Amino acid sequence: MDADPLRSAVEQAPFILLVAEGPQLRIVDVSRVTRLMLGDRDVAGRPLREALADLAGQGWVDLYEQVYRTGVPVTGQQWRAHITRPDGTVRELFADFSITPWLDGDGTVRGVIGGGTDVTGIVKARLEAERQTEEIRQQYRHARDVVDALQQVLLPRGLPLLPTARVAASYLLAGADTAAGGDWFDAVPRADGTVALVVGDVVGHGVAASGVMGQLRAVLQDRLDDGAGPAEALAAADRFARRVPAARAATVCVTVLETRTGAVTYCTAGHPPPLLVTASGEPCYLSPSGAAPLGTAGEFPEAAASLDEGDVLLLYSDGIIERPGRTVAEASDELARVAADAVAGRALHAPEANPAERACTQTVELLVRGTGYRDDITLLAAQRTAAAEALDTRIPADLTRLGALRKTLGTWLETVAVTDEDAFALQHAVGELATNAVEHAPPGGSVAVGARLTTVGTAEITVAGPGPWREPRRVSERGRGLALSSQLVDELVLDRTGTGTVATLRHRVTRPAALLGHAVPAPIHHPEESEDMSIADSGSGTGVTITGPVDAATAERLQHELLYRSRGGTVPLRADLSGVTHLASAGVAALHAVRARHRAHGTELTLVAPPGSPARHVLALVALPYA
């Protein structure tokens, strides 16, 4: 058949259709629907990654390359994409798609064929309809209860706004009905210009886990707020974990960042090491410090690193690197790549979000939609920034100039990313103070207003007037606004002198963490991993072989079997973990408990984990010896 009719058929296909050929996936042809969707850009003959550069950081090009490399088709439903038009605007769409290999007659993969349907209208209509239903309102009320519980037990009141750093976090629960998960995070700003960052994971879920989590967070927060370093704070948490069985084997990463110099001190107590992403989008994992989980008789050595201005440091829980269908090594590589794209702005279009926020939200969405997730996911990021500009302005003592002052202060509050709620409180309080100063200033006088962010995450604003402060008469209707304003901020101090008055207000300013849920789409379908764990004698009489996943569902049985076969830890035992497909925190806790019993009896528990195995990667993180 002549090639022109084929091209005509592709051109007239009433759906998204793209055909690419060869290792570079040069685009052979696209349908008219596809061309219009892409903004009528010239793509013919160009490599896919070059022609669709704006989609490269969103996972689409990776899927085409994966299909070409493996020959295995993939499908997805309602994936989100941001496409940059020629005029610079961005179009958001949702698509159902199927990407299949293009095979030659001998079965060799020649290229890739991608087909899809634009379902943006359907998705947006569904989302709008759901918002109107009683079921969604009930889910929302339930979600609010979950949020309240998490905020009270797990999460800080908010993430601090600092003069030389931006801090962000996201949290995704493993189950919609889970009242509380095993993860937590914290960000503790300190007067010396440092901020302590914490991500931790307690074994288990539910009320018991959340209670232990709240206590561990309180211990760490108290020590870090008092100026302790990572090792000292973790030592205090470790003493608590040794007294409380439910806290044992909890993993924690504690990092102290000197925001002005970029110096980093950290300790990974059985936890994955932080990921450093440079301002240009180059990722690098920091080295684990070598510490063991809490309550397992380990030490807490510290390690050091450094951040340049613009760099982002990302702490995370193991839920993001223990996703279905991925080894820990593969998931770690994906995390580094996707987080780097998010930080550099190469992923989804979000001009209102800073790099730390994009690292926390876009990274979760882009990774989870491709694999799903089996455990809670927590991300905490901090970016070093240039020092926030302080505000120093002066207005004539004229009531008509108060509007200009509100505008100037509003611009500064927006620049330093103060939330609308905090901005309202600050604007209201400053307005009352400035009004009083203007009314009681002598003719020709002026009022000075200064504002800055402090190292402990407080907005400090001063209003200085040349006249003495005058309290409103009790019979006057004036003064009530000032009383209300003093209640809206954390602290209001008046310094009266014979020549003038300086009013200083201080208010802690924070930004909320992103509690993710319905924003995360359904993932590509993957065959379910076998949930069966088996334990068999190795034939030597003193050894066992474990295969399958060791998680919350199987860890207790593993612990029981190992203790039974070692006579309660009184005889040596060799456990081969080569066939373990997944080693979760519950499994780590079980292995630590068995090892502790062996050590108490002076016997050895030998764990065999060959290079490249999932168990080897996890054992190295949690400081469990292996052969």
Automatic annotation (TrEMBL):
SUPFAM superfamilies tied to this protein: ATPase domain of HSP90 chaperone/DNA topoisomerase II/histidine kinase (SSF55874), PP2C-like (SSF81606), PYP-like sensor domain (PAS domain) (SSF55785), SpoIIaa-like (SSF52091)
The PAC domain, residue ranges: 77-131
UniProt entry tagged with the keyword NADP: no
Keyword set, alphabetical order: Hydrolase
STAS domain boundaries: 544-627
Protein's name according to its UniProt entry: SpoIIE family protein phosphatase
